[in-house]
Model the fold of this input.
Amino acid sequence: MRIILFGPPGVGKGTQAKILSIELKVAHIATGDILREAVAHKAELGIKAKSFMDKGELVPDDVVIGIIQDRLKEKDAVSGFILDGFPRTLPQAEALEKVFEKERIKVDKVVSMEVDEEVLINRLTSRRVCRNCGSIFNLMTDKLADMKCPKCSGELYQRDDDKRETIERRFDVYLKQTRPVKDFYAKKNLLVDVDGIGEIGTVTERLKTVLKGAPGKG
Ligand code: AMP
Done:
C-alpha cells in the first residue's frame, strides 16, 4: 500500500504515520526526520538544510526530491510506504509523479489530516521530543515528570522549529506553498479528508477506515 499523509505542521502526521507503518507493514518515510538526522550528524545535506529549517522555511525542492528518489529505491519501500511531509510543493508533487511513472507504481490514497489552526499552534508550542529515542510527547496531554522521556528517561527538548515565531512562519509557508498540493491530488481523485482532532487512537481508527477502501489494500 502506498499512502501520502498530508496536512499542516503539527497535525500529528508523524505520530500517525509511525503507527500506521507498523500496522500496515510499510516503510515510514518522513523527509523532516531524514533532514533532522542529517543535521544531527552534520552531514553535507544537514548543513545545507539547517538554515531553512531553523527559519521555518522549506528546504529547496531539488534537495528533498533527491532524498525521496534515493529513499524510495531502498528495499523496505518496495512493498509500500507512507510518505510523511512530502510532497510539500507542486514541483515536488510533479517530481514524485515522474518517479512513480518510471517505477510503474501508483499511490493508493492521499489522506489529508484536518485540524483548526489555533489547536495546531497550541499543540506545536507544547510538543517535546526525546533526544534519545525520538518519541514525541505533549506538555498538555502527557504527564512528563522532570522533563524526562517516560519511555527511556532520555532528555526531552523542543525542536527549534516548534518555537512560536517559527511556527507562524511555517503556517504561512504551508498556506502559500503546500496547500495547493491538496488540489493537485483532489483533481486526481486520490484525496480524502480525515478529522485530525481527538485521541491518537481515535484518529488512527479514522485513518484505517478510509484506507480500508484504498485499492492497494490486501
Ligand atoms: P517536518 O518534521 O515534516 O515538520 O519538517 C521539518 C522541516 O524540514 C520543515 O519545516 C522544512 O524546513 C523541512 N522539510 C521537511 N520536509 C520537507 C519537504 N518535503 N520540502 C521542503 N522542506 C521540507
